[in-house]
Specification:
By secondary structure, the chain is mainly beta. It has two domains: 350 residues, Methylamine Dehydrogenase, Chain H (7 Propeller); 108 residues, Immunoglobulins (Immunoglobulin-like). 1% of the residues lie in helices and 51% in strands. The strands form ten sheets. Strands 1-28-27-26-25 form a five-stranded antiparallel sheet, with no helix packed on it. A four-stranded antiparallel sheet has the order 2-31-30-29, with no helix packed on it.
């Protein structure tokens, strides 16, 4: 039952029915335009603030507590904004909840690289720069980074390794180790750390997995390469049995795609599958796993969401949203354009960044619902019945849920959960949530109660609010 609580905690605003080049089971909430060629990586602080790398323009923080009316604050670190709009600049960004860490790769114009560290206390919308961190290992630029507690992992353009720092003192980080030593063709590009394991993407060097229980003394658990590798990023399933990697390249007119690896028996690593968007010439960029959903940023093919049930080695697409128009001229080359990143923010909002078009706040809707109230109007002494039917309208298996909630009485907002249900749903399976009550005598005619049906996807750590349907019931 506790798995349903995130779903019930957020009702959110109604999504505007709009689309870009095309969409399936995704609605646009808000589009926040950006300077062309100047939108990069995404992260967030809780459910309330989205962080966006703006490349040559610095970076931005967006208050999305009302996703239909977001508030954007642009931040300009030292030497920013830059005149060369094509500069990588502040491409990637992370936060540990209080501090914000922004990659600085603006060495193209003779500036030194490194990491900008900001403190969000007391006001996240007006953060304070506390450290322009420029150690010798990062002077040629920090391409990407990851924060894990009091440890910072930085992808160095100068050393081509992942450099590891103890940041217990944010004002004076200390270099402790490096990841990637001894790997042929190593060219560090991305790192994530989950459950004391670091997953490092080394482009032409393939990828490697490290035990970082002690980040100062990492232990390599496994390394994999393959013909013409260009491993851009990687993300494991929650149980660490499978790993999804992306190849950010094109070979003989075929774009890089998602590779699926069995990593359950390290150091043995075996490719067991792959996934590719319909346009095989397009190039994939990033992947991100939350519970049993795989979120894919696929450049000119946009955002794709895949279900990992029942077989993580053969994911099935359940939704997509294209942020890049077919006839739109790209900022960079024809291959490297469009959707940079995707970040599952909260039960109501998915965030996507597009290099050419800015930031999109989206509502994922692979589960829909209908709510019926009978009779309506209803008289005192009658039995009021409510019935919520929620349906998996996608092509994949999802853990769905439905709930009936009383949300208003005589215009006074309330939140009373009346009935709920969760189940694993094969497409096009339906779930049914019933509720009934005898309307007591003595209530004033004209009294109106608002009931809301909620449907969504539930998981062990997160939920996705897909749809809400509001029905007012009047007493006659």
């Amino acid at each position: 039952m506790s798995r349903l609580l995130p779903l019930l905690a957020v009702l959110g605003g109604a999504a505007a029915l709009a689309s870009a080049q095309g969409a399936l089971n995704v609605n646009l909430i808000t589009h926040i335009p950006g300077t062309p060629c100047a939108t990069g990586g995404l992260w967030a602080i809780g459910n309330d603030y989205v962080l966006v790398g703006r490349r040559s323009r610095g970076w931005s923080i967006i208050d999305v507590r009302n996703p239909a009316a977001p508030i954007t604050q642009d931040i300009f670190p030292p030497t920013y904004p830059r005149s060369d709009i094509r500069s990588y600049g502040c491409g990637e960004i992370k936060s540990d909840g209080r501090y914000i860490y922004v990659s600085n790769e603006d060495f193209y114009q003779g500036n030194q690289g490194g990491v900008f560290i900001y403190d969000t206390v007391p006001n996240p919308m007006s953060p304070t720069l506390i450290n322009n961190f420029q150690p010798s290992e990062l002077l040629s630029g920090c391409h990407n980074l990851w924060i894990d507690g009091n440890w910072m992992y930085c992808v160095s353009d100068g050393t081509s390794l992942v450099e590891v720092y103890d940041i217990t003192n944010r004002l004076a980080p200390v270099h402790r180790s490096s990841l990637g030593n001894g790997i042929s063709g190593v060219w560090a590009h991305d790192v994530i750390v989950l459950g004391n394991r670091a997953y490092c993407s080394f482009l032409t060097g393939g990828f490697a997995i490290y035990d970082v229980t002690n980040p100062a003394a990492p232990v390599q658990l496994g390394h994999a390469t393959y013909p013409r590798p260009f491993t851009h990023n990687a993300w494991p399933t929650n149980d660490r049995r499978f790993l999804y990697t992306t190849d950010e390249n094109s070979v003989n007119g075929v774009g890089g795609f998602v590779r699926i690896w069995d990593i359950s028996n390290l150091p043995t690593i075996t490719q067991v599958g792959s996934w590719q968007a319909t346009n095989t010439a397009s190039i994939v960029h990033n992947v991100h796993v939350v519970d049993d959903l795989l979120y894919v940023a696929y450049y000119k093919e946009g955002v794709h969401v895949l279900s990992l049930k029942p077989n993580p080695a053969a994911p099935v697409e359940v939704a997509w949203y294209d942020t890049f128009l077919n006839n739109q001229p790209p900022c960079f080359s024809s291959s490297y354009a469009g959707n940079w990143g995707v970040y599952p923010l909260n039960p109501n909002t998915l965030v996507a960044s597009d290099m050419d078009n800015g930031v999109y706040l989206l509502n994922l809707r692979p589960i829909t619902n209908t709510l019926q109230a009978t009779p309506n109007p209803v008289s005192a002494g009658q039995t009021l019945g409510l019935n919520l039917t929620y349906t998996n309208v996608s092509a994949g298996i999802l853990d769905g849920a439905g709930a009936i909630v009383a949300t208003s009485l005589a215009g006074i907002p309330i939140f009373e959960v009346l009935a709920l249900q969760a189940s694993q749903m094969n497409p096009p399976a339906q779930g049914n949530v019933p509720w009934s009550m005898l309307v007591p005598p003595g209530l004033p005619p004209g009294l109106q109660v608002e009931f809301t049906g909620i449907s969504g996807i539930v998981g062990p750590t997160a939920s996705v609010l897909c749809q809400k349907t509001v029905v007012p019931v009047t007493l006659q």
